[in-house]
Amino acid sequence: MALGKQAKVLSKQQIESLYLSLSLTRDPERNRLIFLLSVKAGLRAKEIAGLTWGMVLDASGELADQIALENLASKGTSGRLIPINKLLKQELQRQLDTTLAKTTVQEIRNQRVVQTQRGKETSAQVIVNMFKGWYARAGLIGCSSHSGRRTFITNAAKKISTVGGSLRDVQWLAGHSSLQTTQRYIDGDSDARRKVVDLV
């Protein structure tokens, strides 16, 4: 992916603003969940569309602490375990409660987490179109369904060393087969570059 073609990284303020604006949409719970699966778990549109409840529930039917993303829902063999962010877990719980009001845990394990009013599953293209509409309405130019994923990877890369991790951990979270691919996703910070030079 050429540098000029990459989806824009979202600022903290843009994330908060868009998250709040989704509360005014037709299906706010579902839409907030889709957005957070992108920006707080780094999922691709295909992965969001393919995510099933079985991948986020533990053996007792409660929400797990991590998403066990299977290869069949991912790109190639990039299935992986992704710890669930606190805000994302709240939205997942809301969606789970809504879903369980109509059925049982045993019946939903193979069901898609993200559904539409027309059916019990959706496609990656529908997810891509949703993001396109949300970003356009928010006036965010250069953003796409990949912006949330790129934001997640960039933010994880900036903070991973503070918890004793490395870029290899970010590579794992992103589901990339090579570290070079992960590095292409990371948006640099010129201010940080200036500061680190003085520390060298």
Strand order of the largest sheet: 1-2
Work out the count of structural domains.
Answer: 1
Cα radius of gyration in angstroms: 17 Å
Summarize the biggest pleated sheet.
Answer: 2 strands, antiparallel
Number of helices: 10
Report the portion of residues in β strands. Answer: under 5%
Q: Tell how many strands the DSSP assignment holds.
A: 2
Distance between the termini: 31 Å
Q: CATH superfamily name?
A: Intergrase catalytic core
- CATH level 1 class label: Mainly Alpha
CATH A-level architecture: Orthogonal Bundle
Write a compact overview of the structure shown.
This protein is mainly α and 200 residues long.
Topology:
Blueprint: H1 12-21, H2 28-39, H3 45-50, E1 66-69, E2 80-83, H4 86-100, H5 105-108, H6 124-137, H7 147-159, H8 167-174, H9 179-185, H10 190-199
Antiparallel strand pairs: 1-2
Helix pairs in contact: 2-4, 2-7, 7-8, 8-9
What does this structure look like?
By secondary structure, the chain is mainly α. It has a single domain (8-149), classed as Intergrase catalytic core (hpI Integrase, Chain A). Helix content is 50%, strand content 4%. It has ten helices and two strands, in the order αααββααααααα. It has helices at residues 12-21, 28-39, 45-50, 86-100, 105-108, 124-137, 147-159, 167-174, 179-185, 190-199; strands at 66-69, 80-83. It has a two-stranded antiparallel sheet with strand order 1-2. Helix 7 (147-159) runs antiparallel to helix 8 (167-174). The chain is globular. The model has no long low-confidence stretch (mean pLDDT 90).
